[in-house]
Please model this.
Amino acid sequence: MSVSHENLSIMPQPTAATPPSEEKTLICSICEATIADTDERLICPNEKCEKWTCFNCANMMIKIMFSQPTLNYPLKCGVCGQEFDRIEIEEMIIKSEHYEQYIACIFPLYWSDECLEEYEQLAQCPFCPYLEIHTTDACSIQFLTCQNPVCGKRSCLICLHAIDDDLDQSNHQSICIQLQKYKRMVEQAIELGSVRRCPHCQLTGIKDDNCTHMVCERCELSWCYVCGMKEEECDVDYYADHTLSDHNQGWESNEKRCPMYLYNIYNIDNRWPTSDEECLEYLHRYRTLCELSNVLKIIGEDKFYELNDTFRIIDAAGYTIDEIKNHETCVLIKYTTNND
Model:
């Protein structure tokens, strides 16, 4: 299985030999609405995903991208995180009459990939598409005064809030700067828990709805999606071939083994869902809680609460501090027996 794919997407067309009754119904992967053949839509270019996104959801993603392009560009599949084909995105934007706004917002970002120097970064106004280039070799930028005459707001680029006056800026200077490092640690923990990395080349991705045997598209390494280990390092019986299939043998009672399909876990642990899609969400939520629990241990409970009170970063990600605190006592799979 592949975790990444960069080919241009091609929308499948039913052949004349396919009876209408056998045509596959197109379902939006975000809102689960049925997509008609004549509707505008996006398809994920990842051949192992190929999930659909309806026009309404794609249009909402485009609007969110316009509101904060430095955070939301390029648009990515909501299932596997693969970038959508930019030509398809541009065609949809043209039809929705937002192309001028797209050029104003996105062209500087696209250009910056090739033109920014090592110690330069883009700073964007949180309230409009205005962008500036700043040097970061001396110190990072915290405040931005928007030069857009329609906007003109001054904002903190750490918490993305508007600055009202000098006193307000002083408060942001002391609080946001102090918490910036910890905020980034939480952001990285959430990002790391939401994907899997190839244990060799570190290519990130999310598996499709097939088995847990992974083959990296970049380096062709075989590895297990559940434990994240290389095939040759996975636990197997002494006389077995060192394959992922051997690694799956006896997983129900051996915590060093992993199941071939996530939905099989429900048979021994009814905390798990029964569908592969929900199981995948359960797995990544568990992994994210592990990462957040590690951050909590490093920075301490008081700082963790202060971080959430200031930025609401834990709440916005859909987690609670209580479940992060209690996560240390949780296990991913409750096995029927434990092997020594």
